[in-house]
Amino acid sequence: MQFPSVLATLTALLLCQTGLAAPAGGNGNGNGNGNGRPFLGPLKPWTITKLRVSTSVIGRNHTDRVVVSVGIDNPNNVTAGPAPHAAGGGYVAFASSTANCQSSINGNLTTGTNCTEISHNQDGVWSITAVPNATQHIDPHNLLLTFTLNYSVNRFGSVLQKMYKATGRFNVGQNLIDNGCEKGTCTYSLKNGTKTITVTPKLVQCKGTCTMPTGT
Questions:
Q1: Interatomic CA distance for residues 52 and 65, integer angstroms
Q2: The pLDDT of residue 47 is above 60
Q3: Rounded to whole angstroms, how far apart are CA atoms 149 and 163?
Q4: Separation between Cα atoms, residue 202 and residue 164, nearest integer Å
Q5: What is the pTM of this model?
Q6: Are 182 and 8 in contact (CB under 8 A)?
Q7: Under a CB-based contact definition with an 8 Å cutoff, are residues 104 and 65 in contact?
Q8: CA 148, CA 164: separation in Å to the nearest integer?
Q9: Contact 94, 135 (CB under 8 A)
């Protein structure tokens, strides 16, 4: 079952906020630390802990409403930017984040989003986009999702920002199962026995500490 490109962009601005933390060896209060060193990578993969897709059928090969539910974990603490000497020096970091997120869309209009940010952080926003295939359709049997985590905060008079993206493909028979349709609703979920799925984040935008200082 496929549905048209009017549904191709499934974007959830999931208000999952992630906060500033001190890097290893820091003071843990979001300020700098005199002995800290920046950390930009290599990054650990993000983990997809759960995935459920439901589609409401209104006609053959056509879908009116899509709901995607995702659990995702980012284990990385990455350097946001330097702290001034008066704040202790060193570097501040964007903290790790774990979230349960849901997005729904009717036609080309996103009608509701909800996210429970388990780690209770405050300075980032998760989003999810369903990527259309070569025929400009989204096929829930072969689903390509882009996950975005955008950190942005004004700290010490400067904007510190890092945006990461990762993509994951979810195929029926590989890591998804088709649960069938009942009363006009079809559902898909992670395959039985699939423990977790990992996706690799890449930095796509940056303000602040974006490269390692010379000599580190």
A1: 14
A2: yes
A3: 6
A4: 5
A5: 0.78
A6: no
A7: yes
A8: 6
A9: no
d(CA 182, CA 168): 27
Which burial class, exposed, middle or buried, applies to 128 when counting CB atoms under 10 A from its CB (0-12, 13-18, 19+)?
buried
| Residue count of the chain | 216
Answer yes or no: are the C-beta atoms of 135 and 111 closer than 8 Å: no
φ, ψ of residue 122 to 5 degrees: the values are -135, 5
Tokens of 175: 């890591």
> Of the candidates 72, 71, 94, 92, which has an alpha carbon nearest to the alpha carbon of residue 83?
92
97-106 and 91-94: which strand pairing? unpaired
Give the model confidence (pLDDT) of 55-89 as tens digits. 876 555 555 677 889 899 999 999 998 887 766 77
What is d(CA 110, CA 113) in angstroms, rounded to the nearest whole number?
A: 8
pLDDT, tens digit, for every residue of 178-194?
999 888 888 999 987 66
Cβ proximity of 171 and 142 under 8 Å: yes
